[in-house]
Specification:
- The complex is a heterotrimer.
- By secondary structure, chain A is an alpha+beta fold.
- In chain A, strands 3-4 form a two-stranded antiparallel sheet.
- In chain A, helix 2 runs antiparallel to helix 3.
- Chain B is of the alpha/beta class.
- Chain B is globular and about 85 Å long.
- Chain B is built from 30 helices and 15 strands.
- By secondary structure, chain C is α/β, with parallel strands linked by helices.
- Chain C folds into 2 domains: 248 residues, TIM Barrel; 55 residues, Alpha-Beta Plaits.
- Helices cover 33% and strands 22% of the residues of chain C.
- In chain C, strand 11, helix 9 and strand 12 form a beta-alpha-beta unit.
- In chain C, helix 3 packs across helix 5, helix 5 runs parallel beside helix 6 and helix 9 packs parallel to helix 11.
- Chain C is globular and about 60 Å long.
- The two termini of chain C are 37 Å apart.
- The chains are: A alpha+beta, B alpha/beta, C alpha/beta.
Chain lengths: 94, 751, 318
C-alpha cells in the first residue's frame, strides 16, 4: 500500500533503523492500545537540553534513563565521562 | 502537542537552524517563508466587526454577527505568494492571527505595549494598529467581551478564583469561542456551499409567518445566505487576483499554475470539487475561514484520508495526479496549518504557551463495516510529515486490531524522527467514548453507531468527535486534582508563597477538623469531597458562559459546516448540532493525586510513622524541617509501576471524577463530559499549587496529563502501560492524553 | 539458601536485545570468571553487596549514624565507605534521602520470579519476545534456572534464552539448553594463556562445551546457538585471534552465528560503587560502525564463510 515515491529534490533521507527497536516500539503501542484499551499515547524522545542540565544537576534526575549500545542505564549510574559521551552522541545522532 | 512548538520554533529561527526542508523545491521555499516570519497580530477582523456592530446597534444579535462574517469574507484582501498552489490566508501576513477583539478587549489595553516582548508567546503588532486598537477598538469592546459579560454574574473573588486560583479554573472557556471543530468536509465534497445556499433558500421560502419561531429563523436564513455569498465573493476575489498575477507573470510554469488557481477558485468551495487539487483547496480555505470567524483553537481536519481518497484515486487513475504531487499538496497544507498561531491573553499564554493551535489530522481507522479503512493517503500523510517537519497539524494514527503492520510501522518511523508526531489513538476506546458523549451517567450520546464508525475522530489534542455532527468547546474547565489532598489538610486555604490569585485565602471549602480523619477511608473521602467541590464550582460558572455564548456569540460558518443545523434553523453556538458539547471538565495533576493519597495511606495510616497533624505541619512548612517525613512520603509506592497498592485507588478516583462530571447538566441540555488532557497546564498549575503529600515541593510542576509523576515510573514502559491499562477509558467522554518517552537511539542506528 | 530461591541482582524489562521481541532479562548473581572488561561487576560476587553512588550523595551523613559497624566516614567533604568492613546489612539504605545506596543481590523464589516475568506476557505475545537469563553466570544456579525456564515454556509458551560463559559441567549446560530456544555463549579468547590472563580461567572446558552445544543443536534442531565475541581493543581484536576463532567456529556443526559485541565502558562507574577498581586501561567506547569491527567482521566471514557474522546485541535474527 505504501506508494513508491520518486522525490529527487527532497531534503529528507530515511535513516538506518534498528529493526528490533522499531518492532518492539510498534508492539508496545499495539499491546498498550489494542490489548489494554489505553485510548491515546504520544511519545517524546529525550531533549538534549535535559541531558545537559542533568550533567550539572544529576540529583534532579534520579531515574532519567538513556539508552546506548542497546540497553538502558540510569543517568546517575554513569560516570561523568560517559554522560558527556552520551550528550555528544545525542548531538551527533539527532 | 507536548512541546511549546512556537517558542521552540522561535528559538530555532534565531539560531538559524531551520533548513528549508521538504520533498520538492517548492515546499522548501514555502517552508523557508514560514520560518522567516515572527507571529504577528492582525486587526482587520476587529476593525470589520467594530464597524458592523456600530452600524447595527440595537438590531437582533444574530443579524449583527452574521453580517460581520459576511463583510469579513467580502472585504478580505486576497494574498498569493510565489510558489503557492493553495490559495487563502487568514491574516495579512504569514504567521498572522486575527485578534478576536470580542474575546480580548478587556485585558488587551494593559498588555499592548508589552506584546512583542512578553515572555510567553510574543506577537508583533504595528504601531498604527496598536493606536487604532487603543483608541477605537478596545474602548468599544472592553465591556462587551465574553469574560466581561460573564463577570457580571459573579462576585470579584469568584471571578478571580475561576481565572487564577489554581484549583478550579474556566479561563480557557471564557476567552475562546469558535473552536474545537471537525467541519463537515464530506458535505462540501459532495454538494459545495451551493448546496447549503439552496437549503437555506428553500427553508426561508417554506417558513410559516404564523409560526412564532419563524421570526428568529428568518433572521437566521437571511443572514446565512449573506454569509454564503460572502464566501463565494472571497473565492472570486482570489480568482481575480490569481488571474491578474498570471497576466503579469513571465515564467510560463508559474503562469500556468496561477491560471489553474484561478480556475480552481472560480469553482470551489461554491461547487463540489472535481479533483484532488480542488478538494484540498476546499480543505484549506475552510480552515482559514474558521480561523477568521472563530477565536479559539483545535479546528481539525479529521479523517482526511477518507474524504480525500476518492479524489486521489480518480487522479491516479486518470493520470492527472501522482503520489508525489499529492504529497506536495499535503506538505503545503501542513506548512500553512503551522502558520496559524493562537493568540491568547498574557495570563493564559503562561499556561498554554507555544502558539500552538491544536489542529489535528487523522489517518487509518476502520470503516462503516468495521473493516480496515487505510489507503495510500494514510501512508502519504504520515510520510509527508517526515519530509516537511512542521509542528502542525498533529498527525495521528487511528489504531485498531486490523490496522496493517506496515501502516503502524510507517507511524513508528515518524515517531523515530523525534518531533512528537504522531499520536496513536485506540479506535475501540474512541467508539466507547463517542457512544457515551454528552449522554450523562445513564444515557447515551445522540450519535448512531454508523455515524461514529464513519466520521469519528479526535479534535485538537485528543477529544473525540464525529465530523460535522458535533459542536462545542472541548477544553473548557480545568480541575487541578493534584491540589485536593493538600486542601483537605489546609482546610481549603491556598498555601502562602505560590503563584496566582488568593494565596493565604480560602480557595475551596473547610472540610473540618483533621481529627475526624481516623482512617485512610475518611481521608480518601475528604479528598473526593474537595474534587467534587471543584468540579461543581467550575461547572456552575462555566454554564453561565455557555448561556452567553449561545445568546450572543453566533457562528455562521461553523453552522454551515454542521450537518442538519441549517435545516433546523439553529446556530451551532445555540445548539444546532446533533451533539452539542457543553463546557467540558478536565483533570490536571492526576499522577500527583494518585501518589499523594498513596503516600498518606502508607506513611500516616499504615506505618503510622507520623500523624495527620504532623503532615499538615510539614505541608505548612513546605517540608522544611520535615525531611524525614518527606523522605518517607517520597519512598511510598508510586502510580505507573503496575502496583495495585496505588493503582486501585487511582482507578477509583479516576472513575469518581468521570461520574461526578457526567452527572452534571449543561445549559443547552446535554451532560458534561470529562477529560484528561491539558498538555502543558501541569507547569502553570504546579506554580499555583502548594506542597503536596507525595513529597512534591510548592510551586513545582504537577504530574502531566494522566502520566505517572516525572521520574516516578521506575520499571519502564511495559509496567507503566499496565498501570494505565487499569483505567476505564470509555467513561472519559472527552478523551484522555498520555505522554511517554522512548529513546531515539533505540530506534535509529544512523542518520 | 532456600532451594526454591534464585540469587539475582537485577531484572530488566522492555529490552530489545539478547533475543527476539520484547524481552525480560533476569540477571543471576555470581560468576566464576573475572573478565577485566566486565560491564556488569555487580554480578561477579555471589554474596550481597552494598553499592554506593557518589553522584547522588548529598552528604547528609545519615548513613554514618545508621551503620552499626562504622563503615561510613566523612573525609574531605565526601562520604567514604569501607567496603572491606561492610557486611551488606542494608541499614544505611532506607535512611539515605538521596537514594544513593542499595543492596545488590536479592533472593527471589521461582514462584515470585515467574509471576514478575508473566506480567509482560501480553507484550511477549505481540512481539514474539520472551525471557533471557543472564548474569553473572546462570550455570552456577542451573537447577533453579532450569525450573524457571521450564515453567515459562510450559505455562506461557514463551521464547526463552540464556546468556552463558559455558564455564561449567556439560550436564548442567545441557539441562539449561534443553529449555531454551536460543543460547548465547561467549568466546572471549581462543588463546588459552590469554584467556586465563584476562578472565581468570582456562578456555578448554568452554571450547569443549561450545562444540557439544552445537552438536546438540544440530541433532535436536534446537536451540539456536549464537557465539558472542566481546571485542576489546588490544586484547582480542588482532587478526590472528580473529582468524583462529573464525576457523574454530567454521568447524562447528550447524555453522552457528557469530555476534560481535563492541566494547563499551558503561560498567566502568559501577566498579567504584562497590569498592572495586576497574583494571582495564581507560578506553573509549567502540562504535558499532568502527573500522576495526568492520575488519573483524570481514575477516571472520572470509575464514568462516558459512557462518553469519553480526554486530551488536540488538541484531538478532530468528
Amino acid at each position: 500500500m505504501v506508494p513508491i515515491l520518486n522525490t529527487p529534490d527532497a531534503t529528507y533521507y530515511e535513516p538506518e533503523y534498528k529493526a528490533a527497536g522499531i518492532n518492539n516500539f510498534a508492539n508496545l503501542v499495539r499491546t498498550m492500545l489494542n490489548d489494554y484499551g489505553v485510548y491515546h499515547v504520544q511519545f517524546n524522545t529525550v531533549d538534549k537540553a535535559v541531558l545537559i542540565d542533568a550533567l550539572e544537576h544529576p540529583e534532579k534526575y534520579p531515574t532519567l534513563m538513556v539508552r546506548i549500545a542497546g540497553y538502558s542505564v540510569y543517568w546517575t549510574d554513569l560516570s561523568r565521562r560517559c554522560q558527556e559521551d552520551v550528550i555528544n552522541r545525542t548531538e551527533h545522532m539527532f | 502537542m507536548s512541546e511549546s512548538a512556537g517558542a521552540k520554533m522561535g528559538l530555532e529561527i534565531r539560531d538559524g537552524k531551520i533548513a528549508k526542508v521538504g520533498s520538492t523545491k517548492r515546499i522548501q521555499e514555502l517552508n523557508g517563508m514560514l520560518h522567516a516570519e515572527r507571529p504577528n497580530g492582525d486587526i482587520f477582523r476587529a476593525r470589520v466587526l467594530t464597524k458592523v456592530y456600530k452600524e447595527t446597534e440595537g438590531q437582533p444579535q444574530i443579524r449583527r454577527r452574521y453580517k460581520a462574517s459576511a463583510e469579513l469574507y467580502r472585504t478580505m484582501k486576497p494574498i498569493i505568494y510565489n510558489h503557492e498552489r493553495l490559495a487563502g490566508w487568514p491574516a495579512s501576513r504569514i504567521r498572522g492571527v486575527q485578534i478576536a477583539i470580542e474575546m480580548h478587549a478587556h485585558w488587551l489595553a494593559d498588555d499592548l505595549d508589552n506584546m512583542e516582548i512578553r515572555p510567553y508567546d510574543p506577537f508583533q503588532i504595528s504601531e498604527a494598529d496598536k493606536k487604532e486598537l487603543r483608541e477605537e477598538l478596545i474602548p468599544y469592546w472592553k465591556d462587551k467581551t465574553l469574560t466581561s459579560l460573564w463577570a457580571q454574574y459573579l462576585n470579584e473573588d469568584e471571578v478571580n478564583k475561576m481565572q487564577a486560583g489554581g484549583f478550579a479554573d474556566i479561563v480557557n472557556y471564557i476567552t475562546s469561542h469558535g473552536s474545537h471543530f471537525l467541519p463537515d468536509y464530506p458535505y462540501l465534497m459532495e454538494h459545495g456551499f451551493a448546496g447549503q445556499y439552496e437549503t437555506a433558500k428553500k427553508c426561508l421560502e417554506e417558513l410559516d409567518p404564523q409560526d412564532p419561531a419563524s421570526i428568529d429563523k428568518k433572521e437566521f436564513y437571511e443572514g446565512l445566505m449573506e454569509v454564503l455569498l460572502g464566501i463565494k465573493q472571497l473565492a472570486d476575489n482570489y480568482a481575480d487576483t490569481a488571474a491578474e498575477m498570471a497576466r503579469h507573470e513571465n515564467d510560463p510554469i508559474r503562469k500556468k499554475e496561477l491560471l489553474e488557481m484561478e480556475e480552481c477558485m472560480r469553482h470551489v468551495p461554491w461547487n463540489p470539487p472535481r479533483n484532488f487539487y480542488e478538494a484540498i483547496e476546499v480543505v484549506w480555505l475552510i480552515f482559514c475561514m474558521l480561523f477568521i470567524e472563530g477565536a479559539g483553537p483545535s479546528v481539525s481536519y479529521g479523517r482526511f484520508d477518507q474524504y480525500m481518497y476518492p479524489f486521489y484515486k480518480k487522479g491516479i487513475e486518470d493520470g492527472t495526479l501522482t503520489p508525489e504531487l499529492a504529497m506536495e499538496f499535503i506538505e503545503e497544507l501542513y506548512i500553512k496549518t503551522t502558520s496559524n498561531p493562537w493568540f491568547q491573553s498574557t495570563g493564559l499564554a503562561y499556561y498554554f504557551g507555544g502558539y500552538y493551535r491544536y489542529p489535528h489530522v487523522d489517518v487509518g481507522g476502520i470503516d462503516i463495516n468495521r473493516r480496515d479503512a487505510s489507503n495510500e493517503l494514510s501512508y502519504l500523510c504520515l510520510r509527508a510529515m517526515r519530509y516537511v517537519k512542521t509542528t502542525a497539524p498533529s498527525v495521528s494514527l487511528l489504531l485498531h486490531q486490523k490496522t496493517p503492520d506496515d501502516l503502524l510501522l510507517e507511524a513508528v518511523k515518524l515517531a523515530a524522527e523525534g518531533m512528537g508526531h504522531p499520536s496513536f489513538f485506540n479506535v475501540e476506546s474512541m467508539i466507547g467514548m463517542l457512544e457515551n458523549r454528552t449522554g450523562g451517567l445513564y444515557g447515551k450520546s445522540p450519535y448512531t453507531i454508523e455515524q461514529i464508525l464513519e466520521w469519528g475522530s479526535p479534535i485538537g489534542c485528543v477529544e473525540p468527535g464525529v465530523m460535522g455532527y458535533q459542536y462545542g468547546h472541548t477544553d473548557s474547565c480545568i480541575i487541578n486534582v493534584g491540589y485536593a489532598p493538600t486542601l483537605v489538610l489546609t482546610h481549603g486555604v491556598k498555601p502562602e508563597g505560590v503563584d496566582g490569585y488568593g494565596a493565604g485565602k480560602l480557595l475551596s471549602f473547610d472540610g473540618g477538623d483533621l481529627s475526624q480523619y481516623k482512617t485512610y477511608e475518611d481521608y480518601f473521602k475528604a479528598v473526593k469531597d474537595q474534587i467534587e467541590w471543584a468540579i461543581k464550582a467550575a461547572h456552575k460558572n462555566a454554564i453561565i458562559a455557555e448561556k452567553i455564548l449561545a445568546e450572543q456569540f453566533q457562528l455562521p460558518t461553523y453552522t454551515l459546516l454542521t450537518r442538519g443545523a441549517v435545516e433546523k434553523g439553529i446556530d451551532a453556538a445555540a445548539g444546532g448540532a446533533l451533539c452539542n458539547v457543553g463546557p467540558t471538565i478536565q483533570v490536571v495533576g492526576f499522577g500527583t493525586l494518585a501518589d499523594s493519597v498513596a503516600a498518606v495511606k502508607k506513611v500516616i495510616y499504615e506505618d503510622k510513622a507520623y500523624t495527620i497533624e504532623d503532615l499538615k505541619a510539614a505541608i505548612d512548612a513546605n517540608f522544611e524541617g520535615y525531611e524525614d517525613l518527606r523522605a518517607k512520603l517520597l519512598a511510598a509506592p508510586k502510580y505507573g509501576n503496575d502496583n495495585d497498592y496505588v493503582d486501585n485507588d487511582a482507578a477509583e478516583l479516576w472513575t469518581f471524577f468521570a461520574n461526578t462530571t457526567r452527572s452534571l447538566k449543561n445549559y443547552r441540555g446535554s451532560y458534561c463530559d470529562p477529560a484528561v488532557q491539558m498538555v502543558q497546564a501541569h507547569i502553570g498549575f504546579g506554580a499555583m499549587t502548594g506542597p503536596t503529600p507525595n513529597g512534591r515541593l510548592a510551586g513545582h510542576p504537577l504530574a502531566d496529563t494522566m502520566s505517572a509523576t516525572q521520574q516516578a515510573d521506575t520499571h519502564g514502559p511495559t509496567f507503566a502501560a499496565r498501570s494505565y491499562g487499569k483505567l476505564n477509558y470509555p467513561i472519559y467522554t472527552n478523551g484522555t492524553l498520555l505522554n511517554m518517552w522512548i529513546s531515539n537511539s533505540e530506534l535509529i542506528a544512523r542518520k | 539458601m532456600d532451594s526454591n530461591e534464585i540469587n539475582i541482582f537485577d531484572i530488566g524489562h522492555y529490552r530489545n536485545e539478547d533475543g527476539p521481541g520484547i524481552r525480560t532479562i533476569v540477571f543471576f548473581k555470581g560468576c566464576p570468571l573475572r573478565c577485566k572488561w566486565c560491564s556488569n561487576p555487580f554480578g561477579l560476587a555471589a554474596k550481597p553487596q552494598l553499592a554506593f553512588n557518589e553522584n547522588k550523595c548529598i552528604r547528609c551523613e545519615a548513613c554514618i549514624k545508621a551503620c552499626p559497624l562504622g563503615c561510613n566516614q566523612l573525609i574531605d567533604g565526601k562520604i567514604v565507605v569501607d567496603f572491606d568492613k561492610c557486611n551488606a546489612c542494608g541499614k544505611c539504605v532506607p535512611v539515605c534521602p538521596a537514594k544513593a545506596r542499595k543492596i545488590i543481590g536479592e533472593k527471589v523464589s521461582i514462584d515470585e520470579l515467574y509471576e514478575r516475568i508473566k506480567k509482560d506476557s501480553a507484550f511477549y505475545r505481540r512481539s514474539k519476545g520472551g525471557l533471557t537469563l543472564s548474569g553473572g553466570e546462570v550455570l552456577q544456579q542451573y537447577e533453579k534456572a532450569v525450573e524457571l525456564l521450564k515453567r515459562c515454556r510450559s505455562c506461557l509458551f514463551m521464547n526463552t534464552a540464556i546468556e552463558t560463559s559455558a564455564y561449567g559441567a556439560w550436564e548442567h549446560l545441557k539441562a539449561l539448553a534443553n529449555q531454551c530456544d536460543l543460547v548465547f555463549v561467549d568466546l572471549k579468547h581462543i588463546d588459552n594463556e590469554k584467556h586465563i590472563k584476562y578472565t581468570g580461567v582456562s578456555n578448554e572446558l568452554i571450547l569443549d562445551n561450545i562444540k557439544k552445544l552445537c552438536e546438540m543443536s544440530v541433532e535436536n534442531g534446537t536451540p539456536k546457538i549464537i557465539i558472542r565475541r566481546p571485542i576489546i581493543a588490544g586484547i582480542n581484536d588482532d587478526d590472528e585471534t580473529t582468524i583462529a576463532i573464525a576457523k574454530f567456529v567454521s568447524d562447528l556443526p550447524g555453522y552457528p552465528e557469530i555476534n560481535l559485541l563492541p566494547y563499551h565502558n558503561l560498567g566502568e562507574s559501577k566498579y567504584s560503587m562497590i569498592g572495586e577498581d576497574y583494571e582495564l586501561e581507560k578506553m573509549d567506547m567502540m562504535d558499532v560502525r568502527s573500522p576495526i569491527l568492520k575488519r573483524i567482521q570481514d575477516l571472520t566471514s572470509q575464514y568462516a564463510p558459512k557462518n553469519r557474522v553480526s554486530i551488536g546485541g540488538g541484531e538478532i535474527e530468528t
